């Protein structure tokens, strides 16, 4: 039985709408990444003529990266993990660094994958933000992932874009034409891990309506765009209007030979005159508008309004009060990332078992260390004195806090304290007695 043409057209229309939505989704993520990486000229210059683009620099104020890095507080300090087998950490390469970047990408884009990869005898970590999930009956639980592989940064390289496919049973590489690349080490394209070796990361947890019911931080991107445009307008104002507009009038002025300059003498005839028109100064208004936009944006991300003004000297108490809202938000972030850590170790454990034939044990606990409070020198001294007087810390703890690079552990700090006590300077009475003994020895008759 032939399918009615009306139904075919309806399905095609639905497919076109879904494809348009997916294309917009990918475009928004690409734009967000461009703004985070400071590649914004192409979005700003479209609003200005080519002549103006060649006359002034296009502004690039990267507030996107500054805000994203500030609100990504979970991995600002490396967490402390406790394993049943402590030597398992020797296989993990730059894990904390990659997790910090993963947190920032997740906050920026929402919906990012982390993939542990066994390379050159160690565990490395790939962050995948451009991927396509595949589903079976459950629209919220992918059964497979496909994603483009990294490209070679060679001018003469003509290798086509390659893609990877993973499900719990199968893994293979294919090109943009769908041709599967043969792997002599795995001719049957088997996924030897038996699981999907990915960890899914969402900014606020997995969505409720659809798997990709997520968006990058569009308010942040649009405000960054607004500021770049305003800064470019301000630069044009400075460039074209800072010297005013010169004009000459009179009946005997030769327009062809007139030459204006600090070392020039101009003859304008009997009734000639040279004047300057100064336009109104709009720079303060533009600067104020930019600052107001920045301040309003910071409120969306639990940041104090003075964040837009840069770092200013404040007491530790004032800083804690200003950052209270941001610290409260961090608590829910820690709960989500604790689950990510557990899921990540489950994947690491399977990979180590297959690649090295070892049991990685268990992840007993993970302590997400609080960010260090900013204190003045006096506040820090008072804090140490109080903790010392109550027996909460000792001199070794103070040394490790003062210079964590110079004293990475208690043993090195205690050794330094012991050496210092061995060469303690003499007091005044001891020094005077020693001096008298030396004088007596030198003046004694032999």
Topology (SSEs and partners):
Elements: H1 5-36, H2 41-45, H3 50-53, H4 63-71, E1 80-83, H5 95-109, E2 112-119, E3 122-128, E4 132-135, E5 142-148, E6 162-167, E7 171-175, E8 180-181, E9 199-201, H6 218-241, E10 245-249, E11 273-277, H7 283-300, H8 316-322, H9 324-356, E12 363-367, H10 377-389, H11 395-402, H12 410-422, H13 428-443
Antiparallel strand pairs: 1-12, 2-3, 2-9, 4-5, 5-6, 6-7, 7-8, 10-11
Description:
The protein is of the alpha+beta class. Helices cover 44% and strands 14% of the residues. The protein has 13 helices and twelve strands. The protein has helices at residues 5-36, 41-45, 50-53, 63-71, 95-109, 218-241, 283-300, 316-322, 324-356, 377-389, 395-402, 410-422, 428-443; strands at 80-83, 112-119, 122-128, 132-135, 142-148, 162-167, 171-175, 180-181, 199-201, 245-249, 273-277, 363-367. A five-stranded antiparallel beta sheet has the order 4-5-6-7-8, with no helix packed on it. A three-stranded antiparallel beta sheet has the order 3-2-9. The chain has a two-stranded antiparallel ribbon with strand order 1-12. Strand 6 and strand 7 (171-175) form a beta hairpin. Helix 6 (218-241) packs antiparallel against helix 7 and helix 11 packs across helix 12. The protein is extended. The N and C termini lie far apart (133 Å). The mean pLDDT is 82.
Describe this structure in a few short sentences.
This protein has helices at 5-36, 41-45, 50-53, 63-71, 95-109, 218-241, 283-300, 316-322, 324-356, 377-389, 395-402, 410-422, 428-443, and strands at 80-83, 112-119, 122-128, 132-135, 142-148, 162-167, 171-175, 180-181, 199-201, 245-249, 273-277, 363-367. It is an alpha+beta fold and 446 residues long.
